[in-house]
Amino acid sequence: MRFILNVIWLVLCGLWMAIGYVVAGLICCVLIITIPFGIASFRIAGFALWPFGRTTVERNDAGAGSLIGNIIWFVFAGWWLALAHIFTGIALCLTIIGIPLGIANFKLIPISLMPLGREIVPTDRPFATR
Question: What is the C-alpha separation between 126 and 92, in angstroms, rounded?
């Protein structure tokens, strides 16, 4: 079932969401000092392409640096990526088959707002950390 949902997700919204994250990552990598944000953006792009069967968990070793980084990310990139998830989720929820995809889109909003200090793991081991 995950495979079918992931394929439908990829066709309806996953590709466009991943492109948004890749664009944000490229912009961050061009500005040399924001390369860690670019890496986080590329990581989330992979998650946005194939989200079913994976989840995010907080990292135990994330400190004050990730908090400050998340604030910077929120100001420059997070809010517009979260808006894209909101609008896409609403559009998907207008159809019956799109409701699970819309809900998955809404679940991606927290990581789009604050990606640092989180890790993407398979759902069969959601408590795994580094």
Answer: 26
Domain boundaries, the chain: 2-122
Q: Where are the alpha helices (DSSP H) in 10-78?
A: 15-30, 35-49, 64-73
Whole-angstrom distance, CA of residue 81 vs CA of residue 83: 5
What whole-number distance in Å separates Cα of residue 93 and Cα of residue 127? 30
Instruction: Name the phi and psi angles at 42, rounded to 5.
Output: -65, -35
Spell out the per-residue pLDDT of the chain, length 130, in tens. Answer: 788 888 988 888 889 889 988 998 999 899 888 888 899 899 999 998 988 888 888 877 777 878 888 898 898 888 888 998 999 999 999 989 889 889 989 988 988 898 888 888 888 765 555 4
